[in-house]
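REQUEST FORM: STRUCTURE PREDICTION
Request ID: SP-0412
Submitted by: Lab K.M.
Chain count: 1
Length (residues): 340
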Amino acid sequence: MEFRQLGHSGLKVPVLSFGTGTFGGRGDFFKAWGSSDIAEATRLVDICMDAGVNFFDTADAYSSGLSEEILGKAIAGRRNRVLISTKAAFATGEGPNDAGTSRHHLIQACEASLRRLGTDYIDVYHLHAFDALTPIEETLNTLNNLVQAGKVRYIACSNFSGWHLMKSLAISDKFGWPRYVAHQAYYSLIGRDFEWELMPLALDQKVGTIVWSPLGWGRLTGKIRRGQPRPKVSRLPETSYKSPPVEDEYLYKVVDALDEVARETAKTIPQIALNWLLQRPTVASVIIGARNEEQLRQNLDAFGWNLTGEQVARLDAASDLSPAYPYWHQRQFDRNPKPV
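STATUS: Completed
RESULT:
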């Protein structure tokens, strides 16, 4: 397994990490993702570790904390061999202080995650979303306190906009607090708006990218193709109301290009889509998920080989979209001399 440094830190993470959103299946939304119990989860963790994947991602909001509980039991007795990433910000109760990134909620959420995971520290602690109601200084000072207390080793964010992330980094620098070493972001062949602002920011500020939903919310599994009925077994019908919008014709165009490259490489569409991400700037780790052992083993085969430059260029062209303003305008400013 290849390991990469996580942003501007000394922590090295595997290029593939395992997402445990499929653990537990509590509630209709997460049940549509998967419902691995402790036995199945332990088997999936075993397969990951045998392949060199020792980085496991979860969140307190996944199955109302059950994902963390199951992951904690699945790694019992081998905590020192794994890296754990978990997240906080979304509501974990019905009270006015049961969500967000206030000092009150973050301390409460972190301690609850530690109990569920059965550990005394979290390797990478993410803010799951940006809380516009809490002062950024309060949030970052609290995270600094958690690091100083040894409960958190590295801090990261998720689903931030460019100004959210840049302002947070500037405040951390001002007070000498820990910086976000990573941004867990949605990025895929059918979701490339990450490249418009967040990727240049990550390059400039040395923030590593941990990719979530690399298969475009299940749309790049190879089961959705032009002229074919949608698969009967899919999480999309139950979860699409929270997924990024994708026009059918655009999706089919990208899948057509993936099909072409898959025939040339004897790889599957998901493997091609994952491998494409592994070659993108700033990407430190791509989170793969799996309902079962078969899916996991297929996804693990996305590593250990590379698409050619020409194949990458074809996929880039098929998935390219005109960006929002001001990014489309900025494309006109090209200082690279053109050959005569």
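NOTES: The chain has one domain: 3-330.
Reviewed by: T.R.
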